[in-house]
Amino acid sequence: MDLYPDYTASSLLARMPAPERRFLASIACEAFFDAGATLFDEGGSADRFYILGSGIVEMTQGRVVPVVVDVLGRGDLVGLSWLREDRRWRWSARAATDVVAAVFPADAVRTRCDIDERMRLIVLDEVNAALFDRLDRARSAAAGRARVDAP
Prior knowledge:
alpha+beta, Jelly Rolls, 4 helices
């Protein structure tokens, strides 16, 4: 799959050296999701991850009454649970608009990371950065709600 120009906003791909980027391109496929479609459900098997080429994805938590906990756009990594030992989705992902995304099979990326330290370090650093960005957004949202709820 050609990852450029649609996926140039991805910091993971921007940081990846050419051989590793070619590997990722060779295992990726492009997926299209209509607005309202599910990318994955909380509790399901985390066997892949996505890089958004276009569109907006809402990350939700809660199966009965889903609550939007984050909103992701072009270049963002979607689906970080594939690195966890239990490989189960922690949140659900829904397309808020029509979405085009590159899909990467987790097993192939994990296997390559096991033998390619440079790739492993970049992947882990980018996933950690995404997690910290999401934590910061959640803290800001919670602080904003606390100010609004204050007497």
